[in-house]
Design a protein that fits this description.
mainly beta, 1 helix, 6-stranded parallel β-sheet, single chain, about 5% helix
Length: about 120
């Protein structure tokens, strides 16, 4: 996620499998895309994280806006979550995202969004 910046596309090849052992954060203004390319099955991201989200959207100094996350599959270990927010997240599209075996799929809590909004 260190490459996530305005005007960038982070694309995973269809049919490939990835492992996430720590949380990552996107806290940049877009437009930006995290998704898939090619043919075959949706890229699978398996998480071994037991607390916190796989992908945190925004941060304590919120800059997140105008991102699209699409055509990805996430599989967990029965704990944690996939998407969380540490601050305001504006203009977010989650499209054709498969989430399985997590405690919380999308955790954008009202209190956090309201506080930083």
């Amino acid at each position: 996620m260190g490459h996530a910046s305005a005007g960038r596309r982070l694309l995973l090849r269809r049919g490939e499998k990835w492992t996430s052992s720590r949380s990552s954060t996107i806290n940049n203004s877009g437009p930006g895309i995290v998704g898939a390319f090619g043919t075959g099955p949706t890229p699978l991201i398996t998480s071994t994280i037991d607390t916190g989200p796989v992908l945190s959207l925004s941060g304590r100094t919120p800059k997140f806006s105008d991102w699209r996350i699409l055509d990805l599959a996430f599989r967990g270990i029965g704990e944690g979550g996939v998407f969380g927010s540490g601050g305001t997240a504006k203009r977010l599209l989650l499209y054709r995202v498969s989430i399985s075996n997590f405690h919380n799929g999308v955790g954008l809590t009202y209190n956090i969004l309201k506080w930083y909004g």
